Amino acid sequence: MHLKPVNIVSGYSREQFTSEFVTPGIPALIKDFILPESQEILTKWNYDYFKKEAGDTLVAVHEKENAHLDKATSQAGNTMKFGDYLDLIAAAPTESRLFLFNLLRERPDIRKELQVRKLADNLLTWLPFLFFGGEGSSVRYHYDIDMSHVFLTQLHGVKRVWLFPNDQANLLYRLPWNFHGLADLR
């Protein structure tokens, strides 16, 4: 396997970004994706802020995603208050994670704080999800069956991401009509 570093870019026009990255399907780390008027969220959006703003919101907590490679998705193990979940992941390593918790739909006032550059058509900026996982949590490899352009903004901690080109999809043991595959890439 030949691993390549991801391009780190900034200052791209919509046309430039589309022709150099979107059309050929090349991933990029965009340094200026969040607009300057929203830059404060990079420090403001922390566990204390989210607990204050939405700590009483009930969330479905998922466990050990990689334990169920033969299933389309894992079921939530239990529910708890969002603030309690944030305390849990801050306290110690855990595999507990939130999947498709749309805090920004639950709290549209928080959504208004995030303004991003529109660098290409068909971006999912209208459907922002926040994913949370503690140290030690992971998800099995997945893909978007609609081939949408997805943006990942890491606000806290470290995340390892492996990206595979679409022309390798038939080698990844994908489940039909699903967004997961059978291979455990760990």
From the structure above, extract its key features.
186 residues; alpha+beta; two-stranded parallel sheet; globular
How many strands appear in the DSSP assignment?
Answer: 6
- Describe the main β-sheet briefly: 4 strands, antiparallel
Low-confidence residue ranges: none
In what order do the strands lie side by side in the largest sheet?
4-3-5-6
How many discrete domains? 1
- End-to-end C-alpha gap: 15 Å
Classify the beta-strand content into a percent band: 5-15%
Give the number of helices.
6
| Percentage of residues assigned to helices | 10-25%
C-alpha Rg (nearest Å): 17 Å
Anisotropy-based shape: globular
SSE arrangement, N to C:
EHEHHEEHEHHE
Give the class from helix and strand content and strand pairing: alpha+beta
Overall mean pLDDT score? 80
